[in-house]
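Chain A, query sequence.
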Amino acid sequence: MDNSLNQFILQEIESSITTKQKLLSDKKVIASMQETANICLNVFRQGGKVMLAGNGGSAADAQHIAAEFVNQLSYDRPALSSIALTTDTSILTAIGNDRGYNEIFSRQILANGKAGDVLIGISTSGNSQNIIEAFKVCQSREIITIGWTGETGGKMKQYSDYCLCVPSSETPRIQESHILIGHIICGIVEDALFKNSAKSLNL
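Chain A, predicted structure.
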């Protein structure tokens, strides 16, 4: 066994566990998760949709969480309206080419967002300019903005109606926590809307 490689693996696992332990004891973050879940729940109940956006790994996170809402997390149930603004290559490249990368999400909000929807913007640094521009458009359209960031919140914090800051400055640890947070929020929403009906149908 390569001891240096083994040590690196153990350190990475320990680092991930440490971040989760910080998350577990951070009352503000826990409260933010509950708040975010309640917002999404109200949006769905009122016929709105949850939109998500991010760059790089956070784009994948946006798609992952949208898929959980649209399909299912823990059991079969009706679909929930959710869109990742990171998936249509024709739209993304057209906007990027003609208007600039900073408008790839805001332009989609102008086209498809409506009052009462929510946009979850995911950025480990909190400084992704295309997320900030999207949040600005949301403010003018009465669309709720929720930022998922790292420990400082970055520039996004001032443009977010709500900001959930993972207590870490390490990109991998923040991204791992964002997926955990997304699963928790999806689970809360799913249970609140469908748990009783799922039980009655033995789903």
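The beta strands are 50-54, 82-84, 118-122, 144-149, 162-165. DSSP finds seven helices and five strands in the chain.
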